[in-house]
Amino acid sequence: TRSYTLAVVPGDGIGPEVTTQALTVLNTVAAQHDLSFDTVDYDLGARRYHATGETLPDSVLEEIRGQDAILLGAVGDPSVPSGVLERGLLLRLRFELDHYVNLRPSTLYPGVPTPLGSHVTERGPIDFVVVREGTEGPYVGNGGAIRVGTPHELATEVSVNTAYGVERVVRDAFARAQARPRRKLTLVHKNNVLVHAGHLWARTVAAVGEEFPDVSVDYLHVDAATIFLVTDPGRFDVIVTDNLFGDILTDLAAAVTGGIGLAASGNVNPDRTAPSMFEPVHGSAPDIAGQSKADPTAAILSGALLLEHLGHPQAAAQISAAVEADIAERDTAAGAQSRSTEEVGEAIAARASAAAAEGVAAV
Ligand code: NAD
Ligand code: IPM
Ligand code: MN
């Protein structure tokens, strides 16, 4: 048995609800592949903050750094000023652990309800991945405000883009594009306005592209990209973009491919100098927290990305196949809401173990 240590950060709101289901499915599938996860739960988030004032103590960060991977639910709570937990916990983990590839795949599975018209979905499969830069951009916290609260207030959030940071994520995106059948990379930016960062990104894509002659490259301004995500998402294969554009595009991508309840992500450190972290794209959803209404599918699929990252693609595929089978049979009229969070998790876990019992190992 190959055994891994797994840091679990359930977090706030629906985070613990969906993480519980993700762990059930992960452990079910792991057992069938001779893998095991030694989990350590970290009580981080709003409760800890109110109790001690801490968001992510150094000692906890160092402990997490020693684990093989991290599973996170969601972070953020209305009782805590906006940004405290998001920056102090979630972004701190991404930055400190150098999660420079924020991987966000989108696939429209058969039978999944989508706001897209049939004239769009019938054009062909929708299956793309956003490679969102995870450690730079406007997220670094380079900014400030003066004369706060006065009519003369001035606030800045400077987007930081380094040649080093852009090149490494662009190279990763090219490699991913090269490994996919369509071998297509789309850079999304706003280089008609953000000329300094935008041109750095464009030059980097052109230069790194020389190493990947079999990958075709195109470019879209981010505003136009939102059009095509709705009118022709089938055109996308791999999208590479900065931290903020990637954040926004992936909520839209989720919305057009079945909803935020299905969107999984990996905060990946491709150099493996620290553990990577897997989490749903969605947040803590305070509006439905504590009601067992959250769809745990995104968290469960994040477990598949985790297995893939650890080098177990067959185990990962078993989770995706179980999810795909489950969503194919969802009552689309009633939506996922017709079952509780636990029911969805248990149904997917049951499918995953049945698949193994029948020897129908997923492809
Ligand atoms: P959100 O993703 O939490 O919720 C947006 C909408 O989607 C809500 O109506 C919510 O009910 C719904 N939703 C989200 N996940 C769902 C699920 N699994 N099943 C069914 N419905 C789901 O985004 P928000 O409302 O902008 O943010 C709420 C809090 O979460 C904020 O504090 C924000 O900072 C934080 N946040 C955290 C993360 C993260 O931890 N990665 C991501 C996004 C937002
Ligand atoms: C996400 C979230 C985070 C982000 C926030 C909560 C910091 O929206 O994971 O998409 O902007 O990256
Ligand atoms: Mn987001």
UniProtKB/TrEMBL annotation:
Name the family. Answer: Belongs to the isocitrate and isopropylmalate dehydrogenases family. LeuB type 2 subfamily.
Q: Name the gene for this chain.
A: leuB
Instruction: Name the pathway.
Output: Amino-acid biosynthesis; L-leucine biosynthesis; L-leucine from 3-methyl-2-oxobutanoate: step 3/4
Superkingdom to which the source organism belongs:
Bacteria
Q: What is the lineage of its organism?
A: Bacteria, Bacillati, Actinomycetota, Actinomycetes, Propionibacteriales
Question: InterPro entries, per this entry?
Answer: ICDH/IPMDH, IsoCit/isopropylmalate_DH_CS, IsoPropMal-DH-like_dom, LeuB_actb
Q: Which reaction does it catalyse?
A: (2R,3S)-3-isopropylmalate + NAD(+) = 4-methyl-2-oxopentanoate + CO2 + NADH
Recorded GO cellular component terms are: cytoplasm
Compartments it resides in? Cytoplasm
Locate the residues binding Mg(2+): 223, 247, 251
Q: GO molecular function: any one?
A: 3-isopropylmalate dehydrogenase activity
Q: What is this protein called?
A: 3-isopropylmalate dehydrogenase
In this chain, substrate is annotated as bound at 94, 104, 132, 223
State its cofactor: Mn(2+); Mg(2+)
